Amino acid sequence: MARTLTFKIFRYNPTKDNDEPHIETYELEETPRLNIFTALHRIREKQASDLMYDFVCRAGICGSCAMMINGRPTLACRTLTADLTDTIELYPLPFFKLLGDLSVDTGVWFHDMAKRVESWIHTQKEFDPTAVEERMDNDTANKIYESERCIECGCCVAACATAQVYPDFLGAAGLNRIGRFMFDPRDQRGEQEWFELVSTDVGVFGCIGMMACDDVCPKDLPLLEVFSYIRRKMNSGVQVAVKDLELS
Amino acid sequence: MKVITTDVLVIGAGLAGERAAIASAQAGHDVTILSLVPPRRSHSAAAQGGMQASLGNAVKGKGDNPTVHWLDTVKGSDWGADQEVARIFADNAPIAMREMAHFGVPWNRVEGGPREVYIKGKKTTIVEDDEKEGLITARDFGGTAKWRTCYTADGTGHTVLYAMDNLAVQLDITIHDRMEALSLIHENGVCLGAIVRSLRDGEIMAYMAKTTVIATGGYGRLYGESTNAIINEGTGSWLALQTGKVPLGNMEAVQFHPTGIVPTDILVTEGCRGDGGLLLDVDEYRFMPEYEPEKQELASRDVVSRRMKEHILKGKGVQSSYGEHLWLDLRHLGEEHLTTKLREVYDICMYFIGVNPIKELIPVRPTQHYSMGGIRVNKDGQAYGMKGLFALGEVACWDMHGFNRLGGNSLAETVVAGMVVGNKIAEYTESAELIANVTLAEKFGKEQTDLIEHLLNNSGDEDVYALRDDIAELLKDHVHIFRTGEGLEKAVTGLKAILGRVKNVKVNANAPGMNPELSQALRIEGMAKQAYIIAKGALLRTESRGAHTREDYPARDDKNWLNRTLASWEVGADEPKFNYEPVGPLDLPPGDRGYGGGQMVDMDLTLEEYNAKVDAEQTALGKQASSEPMGIRLPKEAWREESPYKDAK
Q: What is the ipTM of this complex?
């Protein structure tokens, strides 16, 4: 028999005078293969026309719709109600700026992160439109792609203990981005530059290793592997720097 | 009202918009990008399969060149494309792929030596050239003579968009996300910017610029059931249409992709079939070779979708509570392939429909996917009928796709047009003047605040979501893969009635801020008018060409319909105006596509006679003079050097 689902949804509109954060309850008949994307649209279109949330691709690709579903950060579009209890609690992701109800400003945070880690290929080479592309080993391309698959949903940061304490912490998404460019032979940043970027409290040494990020990442990024790569590279970088010091 | 000035205003932060913005920023202009969503959430990110470019590195791409790519594109378009624009595209696609590699895209590369692949249902060993080791590789896609589609697994749009946005961040380009342009500010046929609503707090602002660029993607969501992101509601084409000056081209040319999954309508890439996936019917019988012996599952999308529908109508569909569908079989490709090169597809099937494609068949049916039509522009990307306004990417009708686009050609178009049109935008801006006419901006701003006031406070009782669903229902029922005069009449009558109901839309949510119901209500007139233009244009076009299939007019009619539909809607008028222009200079004479079958009515003009009238007739309908003369980029009869024409000589 079809269930009647109870949605307890966090509501707060910061642009509305005297509004206070509160929980509102909505009931919805469950239909086959119902996901949170469809459920929220049904609630908005019939019961709560001012309900705010974010969806774009609704296919688990764009990273817009991360929220806390029964206490866990995940993508709403691909969460089926069949996998959840009769009562479903929806909260916005913590850590990010709240725009209203379930909508948070992940876009601005990730833009800022991209700036901080200089998320681009650092090279002196100019593009030559007449030349054949530079060769790359396919295994290297695949390795870069593994980290490049991050969709900036923010689940990892929302689940991160360090990020809740140090708002400047780059988070798993930031460290993963650094790893992505470290793997990339086109990026000519040297040991020293990487060292300055990651060897701080807001970088890789801020991580206390609880790895909730790895648990919640909806794209199953190899975060553990990336972090240990960065740490190893930094340790060898330190040794190189110390050796240089002794010689001089 | 806050007024923000910039040199170049780009509306839309997907691949086309960002690449164009980068061209202007590199030329030293001040650029501001507006986007409904953070740039990396744009629908470009969802493109899976790849981008066509004739690099010819993969062994099955050997001998490829821009002429072969151009030939495939023109045939794919069913001769509806502007052949010169298709040539500009094919010539620049290899440069754009290499440039994206330079910007950081981790393209999959050639691995020399033997490997096993599936071609036309058979396991085959091919040997990749050792000399090409490490160069950008390619996979097979539909309607192409060569393996030409460059890719990063099945996350191509994602990696290219991330590389592009990384560059935008590096260049420190101003991006204002969660902003929706509601109307263009214009006077005397010159665009001066746009009126914009913040989706954060609802504020109405004016952005004034020397050059305004629209790159907002397609109008697929008008159909409701669509593979498109939910933001693809035709907002950009509506900006142009509502000026009354700028025509939309070929709006009835709508693509249905063979493999939307059932239910949810999420796309699984054409790369599935390119990599060897098969289409099966209710008896798990592989039916495509019967219809298309040569191309089989890899005919063009219009043809495969038509054949699938045809087969379902013969009673060979699979019944389900979500309607009839067919199967996509990827099982033979094996676990490794499905969890690496087709990993997004694997995830989508597992998460959304609980199907494991390693062991199970995927339920699929043709689903609305792409808008060939859009803002009509000249080969430089300048809008017809208005100076200072450019459009590119899916929102534009540039028009390299004609009546059917090939898979892998749209994602490639975004970066190629971004480069080519982007440079034209930068050049135009060089000599353009910033006219910060605040009085005019206030006037256009007031129109929008009055409209919002009306939507919130009128005494009507129309629900915006019900109206949106009614539009989708009419398009789905009557303006789909197969169309008839009778059905299209119903759609036109129904949509006319909906247009009458638009002014009675009442927004119930009166909370300040984002107000999602108000956002939908602000889009609804544009959605209704564009749906009307699609249906009416399809009714008027009494032939079948590409994705536009009239059961009552099955022949492609080159005598009467080798032209492009232009629809404009004067301010205050009850009906849009339809005009027709030549498709562009012809070099490849209209002929058989080599797949799809069908009848043809031959044109009664020589190519010279046809070409002699193109420029004047297009100019009479609003085309602006391009920076170079028409036809100069179309090398005469280069195609005669290529197969099958070479063998035929």
A: 0.96
